[in-house]
């Protein structure tokens, strides 16, 4: 059992007196955009849009924002 990353067995079993620092991804200051979906879009319509976006070298979101919006 010995040591684990510089800690002895006694250190590992001792209760924590200090709060451990937070590890991981920092919290976001700006909220992430909410996922969006469209109900009622037929499969073949979505397929047509996917193919058109692929031909244009864009994601479906980019294609919708730029190309489909220009039609509206």
Concise description?
With 72 residues, the protein is mainly alpha-helical.
Question: Any key phrases for this structure?
Answer:
3 helices, elongated, 6% strand, single chain, 72 residues, two-stranded antiparallel ribbon, mainly alpha
Folded structure, characterized:
The chain has about 70 residues and is mainly α. It has 3 helices and 2 strands, in the order ββααα. Strands 1-2 form a two-stranded antiparallel ribbon. β1 and β2 form a beta hairpin. α2 crosses α3. The radius of gyration is 26 Å and the shape is elongated. The termini are far apart. The mean pLDDT is about 80.
How can the largest sheet be summarized?
A: 2 strands, antiparallel
Uncertain stretches: none
Considering DSSP H and I runs of 4 or more, what fraction of the residues is helical? 40-55%
**Gyration radius, in Å:** 26 Å
Q: What is the multimeric organization of the chains shown?
A: single chain
Shape annotation: elongated
Work out the helix count. 3
Instruction: Provide the spatial order of strands within the biggest beta sheet.
Output: 1-2
User: Structural class of the secondary structure composition?
Assistant: mainly alpha
What is the secondary structure topology, with strand pairs?
Layout: E1 3-4, E2 7-8, H1 9-13, H2 43-56, H3 60-71
Antiparallel strand pairs: 1-2
């Amino acid at each position: 059992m010995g040591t684990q990353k510089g800690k002895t067995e006694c250190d590992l079993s001792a209760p924590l007196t200090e709060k451990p620092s937070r590890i991981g991804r920092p919290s976001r200051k700006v909220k992430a955009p909410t996922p969006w979906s469209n109900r009622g879009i037929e499969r073949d319509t979505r397929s047509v849009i996917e193919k058109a976006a692929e031909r244009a070298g864009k994601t479906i979101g980019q294609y919708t924002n730029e190309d489909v919006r220009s039609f509206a």
